[in-house]
Specification:
- With 289 residues, the chain is an alpha/beta fold.
- The protein has a single domain (23-287), classed as Rossmann fold (3-Layer(aba) Sandwich), CATH 3.40.50.1820.
- Helices cover 23% and strands 17% of the residues.
- The chain is built from 7 helices and 8 strands.
- The protein has an 8-stranded mixed beta sheet with strand order 1-2-4-3-5-6-7-8, with helices on both faces.
- A hairpin with a 5-residue loop joins strand 1 and strand 2 (64-70).
- Helix 4 crosses helix 5 (166-176).
- The termini are far apart.
- This is Alpha/beta hydrolase family protein.
- Keywords: Hydrolase.
- InterPro entries: AB_hydrolase_fold.
């Protein structure tokens, strides 16, 4: 659970635990992407556009959840709710500027929008670190409000996408959402080994996810808490929905921290190829009878 704060009574809510039942066996297949050119890292600027619609979603008992919606630049095919990694503090300003714009979900904003997808960026609750709190029942209630916000922006399917620590939040959101609320779940370089946050995607009830899911793993990711070797285990844990594993390779290392954003863990330098692979899967999933 969250740490109790006087201004945030929602975080003290006691929610009933969800029961897990057996379901259909997961399937997974590999889709390999080619390594990007060396110049691609320099072509991707780490900056925010500042042209989104910012809203503070009020929470029961006080506090707020800040989100920002940026519309697609062509006919809207869908909306993707983005949960960033790390502490989750990307610091969305009221102007729409994102102060901490290095995270993959922020850097790739233009790529998604150019392909017809609106983006909902999710900031940390009350600008506090989300480490250790993303898998909680209280935060699951917050994700419901975020998904409701996304669904109000356009008459289009909604996906949730998480990267690194943010994958925990994405699984939690998908495991508590109804089948008609989400089109799918996308997990990128997901935290699957216990580290400083003391939680992984396995703590967020992946066996309750019932929407098509994609697990993306970079074979060159050296982040100790998100090893690519765990991708199949993550896929198998989503046992009540069809799940695909997509492998990628490459990326540049611009920081010493192997779990940092400007590394293969954060798809630095291979953003476009990763986005293209995910979009291909999304479109294939939508076209299934």
């Amino acid at each position: 659970m969250f740490e109790a704060r006087p201004h945030h009574l929602l975080l003290r809510m006691a929610l009933a635990a969800m029961c897990c039942v057996s379901g259909p066996r997961v399937f997974a297949h590999e889709l390999a992407l080619h390594r990007s050119s060396p110049d691609s890292a320099q072509a991707m600027e780490v900056s925010s556009t500042g042209d989104g619609v910012v809203e503070d979603l009020p929470l029961q008992g006080g506090g707020f959840q800040r989100v920002m919606y940026s519309a697609a630049r062509r006919e809207t095919k869908g909306i993707i709710v983005m949960f960033p990694g790390g502490t989750g503090e990307i610091d969305i300003e009221k102007s729409g500027r994102v102060k901490n714009a290095k995270n993959f979900v922020v850097r790739s904003d233009d790529l998604w929008r150019d392909r017809g997808y609106g983006i909902v960026l999710v900031d940390a609750l009350d600008h506090q670190s989300m480490r250790g709190q993303r898998s909680s029942a209280a935060y699951a209630e917050v994700t419901k409000k975020i998904i409701e916000f996304a669904r109000r922006q356009a008459n289009a399917p909604v996906w949730v996408l998480g990267t690194s620590q943010g994958s925990i939040a994405a699984v939690n959101a998908a495991s508590h959402a109804g089948r008609t609320q989400l089109a799918g779940l996308i997990l990128t370089e997901s935290v699957s080994i216990l580290g400083g946050s003391h939680e992984t995607v396995f703590d967020a009830h992946p066996d309750d996810v019932r929407v098509p899911s994609l697990v993306v793993a970079n074979v060159d990711d050296r982040c100790k808490v998100a090893p690519p070797s765990m991708a199949q285990s993550i896929a198998r844990s989503i046992r009540r929905a069809p799940t695909t594993v997509m492998t990628v390779s490459g990326g540049e290392q611009r920081t010493q921290d192997d779990c940092g954003s400007l590394t293969p863990h954060g798809y630095y330098g291979i953003e476009e190829k990763v986005v293209n692979g995910i979009v291909d899967w999304m479109q294939q999933t939508q076209n299934r009878p």
